[in-house]
Design brief:
Helices cover 19% and strands 44% of the residues. It is an alpha+beta fold. It has one domain (4-211): mRNA triphosphatase Cet1-like (mRNA Triphosphatase Cet1, Chain A), CATH 3.20.100. The protein has an 8-stranded antiparallel beta barrel. The longest helix has 15 residues, at 15-29.
Length: 218
């Protein structure tokens, strides 16, 4: 009975504690931290995952039959952007070539940088009551060299990106045309990047994860 009493008196850990640990790793390691809006969808039919839950579900690894699709609908892309229209912003047009050596970024036809991006950790969060789920990513970027690779391109991304700045965040709205070997498609992507680990407040960031979204009508 004493053992049971100890168990019952222990503090209950909720998912926000795990998110704070994730954020703490970013603050300690000075890596790149991003929120990406999208949907956890079935690999078979492309439909969004449906869970009978009233609280967010945090996946360290989503089930094998699902994938995270990082994109939003055009109408939502524009409505979220309007929320930030009064803040300082910048617009950039570039082309990103992805191959085995890394990511080559070109502006006006000139090679600007070549990076290798290593994903060190991720969490996928199913959010009931919202139209989009969230992928939380901890990356490490390394600029490797300043010359173009001779390796064959896997993907070409032609991008127009508008970034709105609210310290310590950058809200990226990217219209991208993806060109691969077989098809070309347009995507609208919304990401939030943390620029300053020193000025990041964990509770504000957790709130942003759940509230920078679109209410579901279903």
């Amino acid at each position: 009975m004493e053992d049971l009493t100890k168990i019952l008196k222990e503090a209950v850990k909720d998912h926000t504690e795990y998110l704070r640990k994730f954020i703490l790793a970013f603050k300690n390691d000075r890596k790149e931290l991003e929120i990406r809006l999208g949907r956890i969808v079935s690999k078979e039919d492309g439909n969004r995952m449906k869970l009978d839950t009233v609280a967010p579900v945090v996946f360290k690894n989503i089930p094998a039959e699902y994938r995270f699709e990082s994109a939003v609908d055009l109408a939502d892309f524009n409505s979220l952007k309007r929320l930030l229209s009064s803040f300082k912003s910048e617009t950039k047009n570039d082309v990103v070539i992805i191959n085995e050596d890394g990511r080559e970024t070109y502006e006006n036809g000139e090679l600007k940088k070549v990076e290798k991006k290593t994903r060190s950790e991720k969490l996928d969060i199913y959010i009931p009551g919202k139209k989009y789920d969230v992928r939380l990513v901890l990356n490490e970027e390394k600029e490797v060299f300043k010359r173009a690779s001779k390796k064959k391109a896997i993907m070409k991304r032609t991008r127009r990106r508008e970034t709105y700045f609210i310290e310590p965040y950058g809200f990226d709205f990217t219209e991208a045309i993806l060109s691969g070997e077989r098809e070309e498609k347009r995507k609208f992507e919304v990401e939030v990047e943390v620029f300053s680990s020193e000025k990041l407040v964990s509770s504000d960031f957790v709130s942003l994860i759940y509230n920078f979204n679109v209410d579901s009508l279903v």
